[in-house]
Amino acid sequence: MQFLTSGELVRLLDITKYTLRYYEEQQLIQPAFIDSNGYHMYGEDEVYAMAHVLLLKKIGFSIKDIKSSLENELDQTKTLTSVLSRIEDEMEQLNNAKNKVQTILGLQQKVSNGLITETKEIRSFTYLPDEFVDEAYNLNLKRLAKRKDDSLTILDEISYVITENGEKIKVMFGSTNEEAEHIMPSGTYFSKKITIEQEEELEPEIQCFYGDLALLDAEYEDSLFIHEEAYLSAFYTKSMVYSLEVKAK
After folding, report:
1. Domain count, the chain
2. Secondary structure of the chain in the HEC alphabet?
3. pLDDT one-digit tens code per residue, 65-84
4. In terms of residue numbers, what domain contains 192?
5. Are 120 and 26 found together in one domain?
């Protein structure tokens, strides 16, 4: 029978000596024997045992589950079902992350492209109570931190709707249709992405937006929708990115 040294085994299985030592410490594998020079030697049985351990680890088994599996104490179907559920959760998280990255890339392309028209799906929002907003419509972070209702976190994107010819401003965050206090209907919107460093720059940008609409002789509804592009703004060290929108008539 042929026997492999630890160096030969790790090369055969494409692992590190650290991994091999760790699994030996965890009693998941043991050498066939230790020769007179102190070398750990592994036969065919140990090679396939180690390959089995690596397979279980790769599909998501914990060290504890692998030990139980090797000792025939594990309900394989139950454990595999649990592993599959965890993998599906991780896939969903990765898909969500992928969608966010794709959204950010799309938004980046629109930041400096001026006024555009976009088709939007219906969007639902809940108003943030006035107690959490100051006179300049900034969030009161201390009060938000003490808020018992956890439906809003600082990571949520905030939006503003300006109605009644600019006389009324409401701060909003996204919600489900059932909880919605404000609905942005589906349809065609005139929109523009802007970047500003100071809040006082927002009003001139809004006037410029209306000026662009006037040049197009665009017909639109009165309400102005302002959305903080929080994910996109994270890539600007000193600027905040906003989306300005009005619904086309």
Report:
1. 2
2. CCCEEHHHHHHHHCCCHHHHHHHHHCCCCCCCEECCCCCEEECHHHHHHHHHHHHHHHCCCCHHHHHHHHCCCCCHHHHHHHHHHHHHHHHHHHHHHHHHHHHHHHHHHHCCCCCEEEEECCEEEEECCHHHECCCCCECHHHHHHCCCCCCCCCCCEEEEEECCCCEEEEEEECCHHHCCEEECCEEEEEEEEEECCHHHHHHHHHHHHHHHHHCCCCECCCEEEEECHHHHCCCCCCEEEEEEEEEC
3. 888 877 776 677 777 788 88
4. 111-247
5. no
The model carries a pTM of: 0.53
Same domain, 144 and 223: yes
Is residue 213 included in any domain, yes or no? yes
Range name among 110-124, 130-144, 173-187, 212-226 with the lowest pLDDT average: 130-144
Same domain, 70 and 171: no
pLDDT digits (tens, 9 = 90+) for 115-143: 888 899 998 888 887 777 777 666 666 77
